[in-house]
Design goal:
Elements: E1 5-7, E2 13-15, H1 17-27, H2 30-36, H3 39-59
Antiparallel strand pairs: 1-2
C-alpha cells in the first residue's frame, strides 16, 4: 500500500507519482501530465503523493 506500481507492455516499471503520470497520459490527461512535470511543481506533487500514500488506508475510512 506504500506506492502505486505499474508495468507497461515493454516491461518498464513506474512507481509512485511517475505511475500516476503514466496512467493519466494513457487516459488522455496529457496537459495535467505536462504540468505535473514542471520542476518546482514536480517536487511538491511527489511530496504530496508520499504524504497521501502513507495515510491512504486511514483517509479511506
Amino acid at each position: 500500500m506504500g506506492q502505486l506500481r505499474l508495468k507497461d507492455r515493454n516491461g518498464q516499471w513506474y512507481v509512485g507519482t511517475d505511475a500516476s503520470r503514466a496512467l493519466y497520459a494513457i487516459l488522455g490527461y496529457r496537459r495535467l501530465v505536462r504540468l505535473s512535470c514542471l520542476p518546482g511543481l514536480r517536487r511538491v506533487m511527489d511530496a504530496g503523493y508520499r504524504f497521501f500514500a502513507r495515510r491512504r488506508v486511514r483517509l479511506g475510512r
